Amino acid sequence: xxxxxLTSAFAIAxxxxxxxxxxxxGGGSNIAVLPPGGGVTPAPxxxxxxxxxxxRQNWAKAQIDEWYLFPETLPNNLNPGSFSSVQAYIDGLTAxxxxxxxxxxxxxxxxIAQENAFLASGATAGFGIRLSYxxxxxxxxxxxxxxxxxxxxxxxxxxxxxxxxxxxxxxLQTVTSLFASGGSSAVSNALGPSTAGTSRVLRLRDxxxxxxxxxxxxxxxxxxxxxxxxxxxxxxxxxxxxGYVNLRTFIxxxxxxLRDAFAQFQSEGVSELVIDxxxxxxxxxxxxxxxxxxxxxxxxxxxxxxxxxxxPSKSSNNQTRNFRQQSQxxxxxxxxxxxxxxxxxxxxxVINAMIPYVGNGLALIGGDTFGKPVGQIGLxxxxxxxxxxxxxxxxxxxxxxxxxxxxxxxSVANSCEAPDDLTMALGDPAxxxxxxxxxxxxGTACTPIAGIQSAQIAGQANPQSTxxxxxxxxxxxxxxxxxxxxxxxEVPGSF
Length: 495
What we know:
Layout: E1 3-8, H1 9-19, E2 28-31, H2 53-67, H3 86-93, H4 95-99, E3 108-111, H5 112-121, E4 123-126, E5 129-134, E6 139-145, H6 150-153, E7 161-166, E8 173-174, H7 175-190, E9 199-205, E10 211-217, E11 219-222, E12 232-237, E13 240-246, H8 254-267, E14 272-276, E15 283-284, H9 285-295, E16 304-310, E17 319-322, E18 334-339, H10 346-358, E19 362-366, E20 374-381, E21 386-396, E22 414-417, H11 432-441, E23 454-457, E24 469-472, E25 477-478, H12 486-490
Helix pairs in contact: 2-3, 8-9, 9-10
């Protein structure tokens, strides 16, 4: 399959924190398409008998040996029989690059059918919420709720705290006891599998401090990349029209939504933007490139948006992507990107692409990004429903900015620390990060990002406190299961 991507880096960070570096994290996606006539040739369809564990492991190794961006790091004699799964073997093969911070579980095997469904329309199954946790404070919060899903229909939205989880009202386990028994993994396990029909009783505390028990049943739904509630707005910032767009993930269904958003900005004469990517772990490169095109109204066809670099033996696949004018493109004079360490991969690709052209008019607001300047190709073994995502290329902008594995804060002209305020709705001009972004656009001084600083769950000394937020040292950790679905890799924290 001629398909590659920038995947969800955030998922990796969360899993490293919650599972001690387990191999199940998503890794931040940069999914790119190889040039016509070049690149990946699908593997021959194997007979069902070839889908044994060892056969699948050997197939995965052959693809990694051919395409891996860091071939010098691969071990020569790693016995697949020492590993109980395909993913565990892949993690063993990529351990050296992982230790170097260059492949933080970005290479993985997944389901072809599951990934195709998600990348087309955001198809998944669950309650339809994104969860973060603080293991020190022993608390779990809803960061956002997705439209058309069961949780929002039950009144669960941003800022709600989950206090207890059970199969029935009679066997509720408190979040405190779950953390004590098995950390964040115990919490994610208590929420049950990502299958429609799975029901759980949740004890909740809303922003007013009211506690209720609610039964919610998981269902199939599509995650909308841009929320119809708050995803696109035009904000009056002291007399200046500011366009606001919040993108959850880079998938195919995001493209018409982005075009509609920028058509609105264009019609309103918007030239200053707040682009909210605070939880966006990545996705399709082609969608990121369109996003940059929509921001590149002032660029000409010879202006480079970015470069894609493969290993020397695959250099025939290297690409230079120039800006392409879209009918909805605008020419921004200032852009404030709202980011956290959960902003990764394709999100970083868009930001990095705009640095040479917006310069001092560009800022990161919130916290530093994850740091994933590499992307994955996908190779399929259809009879086994196996798609291996292999880190195969690096990305850089027109100025050659690459290898930003520590995040983009050091690459931008401006940055401002800001809280992620769960007491306020996303898209609200008064929300901490958005207010700080609007301040940057209007020239208000701020404290530069010195590290990852964001508002996190408060009340550490009293886990039962009804206080929701206060500035802590780290970004919220998104809750991740040990075996994430495609949606959970691409939309970290989703359940």
